[in-house]
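2024-03-11 09:14:02 INFO queue: dequeued item Glycerate 2-kinase, len=424
2024-03-11 09:14:02 INFO validating residues
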Amino acid sequence: MDQQIQQAISIFESAVAAVQPRRFMRACLTEDTVLGETLPASGRIYVLGAGKAAASMAKEAEEILGDRITQGFVVTHQPTPFHLKKITSIIAGHPVPDLNSLIATTTMLEVAGGIHPDDVVIFLLSGGASSLLADVPHGASMEEVQQLFNSLLKSGANIQEMNAVRKHLSAIKGGQLAQKLSPAKVYTIILSDVPGDDPAVIGSGPTIPDPSTFADAWAVLEKYQIVSSLRDYVKQGMEGLLPETPKVLPNSVFTIAASNYTALNAASEKAAEMGFHTQTLPELVTGLASREGARLAQLAIDYKGPFPACILAGGETTVQVKGSGRGGRNQELALAVGIQLKDAPHITFLSAGTDGIDGPTDAAGAIVSADIMQHAPEDPLSYLANNDAWHFFESAGSLIRTGHTHTNVMDIMIILLQKPVNSY
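2024-03-11 09:14:37 INFO prediction written
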């Protein structure tokens, strides 16, 4: 394997390691405190959670609190290599909810119904909770909810827009779980996977006040021309026939325990150790993957600083699915970059999801260079047009496969640059 490819992968692995729950949970939770406040000496403590990192966060909570936990329940998306002792876990569907998503919501609400005012609830929230904790509006079907989730995912809508809709089709999202737990105190420890680290957006914020409205949800459906029978449900909310999500939750507090910036800082430190001159782009990379790929490639080509260099970026692009291929946003981004780099042998580019999974594929992302592009399938533009980056990179042998990492803080992009042969 090319040295620069190995270096890019090592930098990415350092980024993922920095956002594992064992690195951040103990800064938020001790045997006697949570988010800096003292836990009751004799009160009951409940641990709930949802998201891709929920089980691994729960494992750390068990190790810290031990028998102080009265009861716990979390929902995540993949089996874990460890066993929880005090906290029950369930596997549910992602990125589209399934029957287990409904069971998880029902179970969560049943636990909430048994909590007393003087109890403490520690909620562990990470990306993916929007699908893992799902319910069906009165009069609708599970199939209709799944179809709407699919339409949102393929529309090109960003995560803020998608979750504005999801929160207003639910009785648990958008702060409604905390509302049902009130007046018990709720402490939410959050692993952020959204641009801007807005707690109301992460996992559709079950325990966070929700500034979005039914009107916002309707605007998203209109903007992306999403036709669904659930539009009528949203319209009822706009007309005041349904309760709005809570805008204030006085008994709910939260912290962002780790984020994409945490991972980027670790990546920068690793690259510097390897001898790279590092810089991190100040703005998150968002927008359409194909468009952002062309921009990042040009940025690398135009680089005028010292060599060797490592340019880092974080974020989460979107894909407007028009073709019938297979792929994810990181693979599509890498392909768009690679198309521009075929004549730039001094540049290597990697883009991968910190959760280890990119779209409905078995890869976290892909790595690309001029050499990879020159030995890859012909006509990469046709693969890009067909949203078929997975097959392109599978043939090229440059998919990044990490397996599920049990964490999730969006995506990491790494550009490594050596001094061009013809530069002086």
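2024-03-11 09:14:37 INFO annotate: The mean pLDDT is 95.
2024-03-11 09:14:38 INFO item closed
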